[in-house]
Amino acid sequence: NAGVTQTPKFQVLKTGQSMTLQCAQDMNHEYMSWYRQDPGMGLRLIHYSVGAGITDQGEVPNGYNVSRSTTEDFPLRLLSAAPSQTSVYFCASSWQGPTPRFDEQYFGPGTRLTVT
Amino acid sequence: TQLLEQSPQFLSIQEGENLTVYCNSSSVFSSLQWYRQEPGEGPVLLVTVVTGGEVKKLKRLTFQFGDARKDSSLHITAAQPGDTGLYLCAGVDFGNEKLTFGTGTRLTIIP
After folding, report:
1. B99–A45: do the CB atoms touch at under 8 Å?
2. What digits encode the pLDDT tens for the residues B74-91?
3. Residue B4 and residue B22: Cα distance in Å, rounded?
4. Of A1, A28, B13, B51, which one's alpha carbon is 20 to 30 angstroms from that of B7?
């Protein structure tokens, strides 16, 4: 049971390049989400999904696309990288997602992205 | 966008001392979680508090949810170097499928 895995661990992009950050979980969780973490700002929600085929925007969705074709995978695509997207990106999953008795979110180890 | 402000932003204390960190908002949350994050890793859930006024203990850590469900505190007794890390609070909106994270408190315990 690997939990939540993310690849790559580190990435450097030039402005304007595109790339996909991979996220997979083997816990059969319905809810998956992507966050970015910047100094002094905690984690901010980019996109989330409550199940295969369903995605929605979070707090900071501009410049990112997601899809959820399977329960296991939730890739994050950067369409045209910008220096403002330099950040650490975390993928997370949980059984049902935020409810009044919120299920535990399991986080991946993160991808550190630098855009020059 | 609901905001969760944590204070202090940085805290460095000697091993054995007690400390309290705070998580405050002007918004009401249905529940609130505390996570700890170590360098190079993702956050790990410590506790979820659901009821206004609720107190939960996890060994030397005591978590309290405010009566009005707008704020929370984390108290650590006799801090140890293993408590070092970034502490994040996160609130769950009523009827909303999203978590809002606080700004974080970076705690360093000096041996």
Report:
1. yes
2. 999 999 999 999 999 999
3. 10
4. B51
